[in-house]
Write a structure and sequence with these properties.
Oligomer: single chain
Shape: globular
Order of helices and strands: EHHHEHEHEEHEHHEEEEEHEE
Low-confidence stretches: none
Bound molecules: N,N-dimethyl-L-histidine
Helix content: 25-40%
Strand order of the largest sheet: 1-4-3-2-5-6-13-12
Strand content: 15-25%
Radius of gyration: 20 Å
Number of helices: 9
Length: 322
């Protein structure tokens, strides 16, 4: 984990262990059992996700970077000067860099990220590359209302940047709720710049979540490693398998951890029985048509003003306004 430069203050609202234990208890009481995908992202989980992005099957990152390389000039011109750029998720990577390089006189960069280590690493890297851009990191869960730090200079526009198609990790109701929060946080003149993965050949989508090197499998199982370490559960790693299937009706990858035998798992003083082949839901990765996504945005009171694509039209970056 990197140390922050002296002039950057971390606003730390990381959830307590007791909250995580409560989330796990509630998830295992549900039928079918489920755990939220945000639990993937401890330090190791964030590293594994970075590794997934480099797998040949995981087309999303390559397509989004190609899109940004081709269109950042146009995107930055659409956002305009004196923007306060609020990113949901930590963005040390190429996409954030491209944006910060092209934005005219940005007022501040505000990454909001639940993984403290990923946040600190990204700010340490970006503050070296962009010493002229004030950085105001917030360690928090962006699915809850945020109090954004006050910028030292007043922005012309707040733009919420949400790349990577992370919106697809939320069911429609929650995705709408998050976009409603964004709408409130960006204010009247604000906008949302969001990465949205598109519907395509199901075989291509399914391969992206079942890479040959097994990194996604390790990423999924790491959730259990993390819970065993952080909240004292006793998941037996050798008795759970990663399964990721595309559900064409719902238009989404459904990732589950499947119990390979009958077993009991202890969470605090509660015992949860798993049957053989019982699947616990851990992630959805929704894929959209342009119409699907425009309708979702509309439900949140947002309108799609621009859409950019990569050359193969696998992925889109969309600009939403009130
Ligand atoms: C972060 N999110 C958009 C990724 C996705 O594609 O749903 C997380 C991921 N899960 C497995 N592979 C990648």
């Amino acid at each position: 984990m990197s140390a922050l430069p002296n002039d950057i203050r971390l606003d730390d609202r990381h959830p307590a262990v007791a909250d995580t234990l409560d989330v796990v208890r509630r998830g295992l009481r549900a039928k079918p059992k489920r755990l939220p995908s945000r639990l993937f992202y401890d330090e190791r989980g964030s590293q594994l996700f970075e590794a997934i992005c480099e797998q040949p099957e995981y087309y999303l990152t390559r397509a989004e970077i190609a899109l940004m390389r081709e269109h950042t000039g146009d995107i930055a011109a659409t956002l305009g000067p004196d923007v306060r750029l609020v990113e949901y998720g930590s963005g040390s990577g190429i996409k954030t860099r491209l944006l910060l390089e092209h934005l005219a006189t940005p007022v501040a960069y505000v990454p909001v990220e639940i993984s403290r280590s990923a946040l600190l690493d990204s700010v340490a890297t970006l503050s070296t590359a962009f010493p002229q851009v004030p950085m105001q990191p917030v360690c928090a869960d962006f699915t809850q209302p945020l109090r954004l730090p006050v910028a030292t200079r007043s922005p012309r526009r707040t733009v919420i940047y949400f790349p990577g198609s992370t919106i697809g990790n939320f069911v429609a109701r929650d995705a709408v709720a998050i976009m409603q929060l964004m709408r409130a946080e960006m204010g009247d003149n604000g906008a949302v710049l969001i990465g949205v993965d598109l519907k395509k050949d199901p075989a291509l989508i399914e391969a992206a979540y079942n890479d040959a090197a097994g990194i996604t499998r390790e990423f999924t199982l790491n959730m259990l490693v993390r819970l065993n370490r952080e909240v004292g559960t006793d998941f037996d790693l050798s008795a759970f398998a990663h399964r990721a299937h595309y559900n064409p009706m719902a238009g989404r990858i459904e990732t589950t951890l499947v119990s390979t035998r009958q077993q009991d798992v202890h969470v605090g003083n509660e015992v949860f029985a798993f049957g053989e082949d019982e699947a616990m839901q851990v992630e959805y990765s929704c894929k959209y048509s342009l119409e699907d996504f425009a309708e979702l945005a509309h439900k949140a009171g947002l309108r799609v003003e621009h859409v950019w694509f990569d050359a193969e039209k696998q992925f889109s970056v969309q600009y939403l306004v009130r």
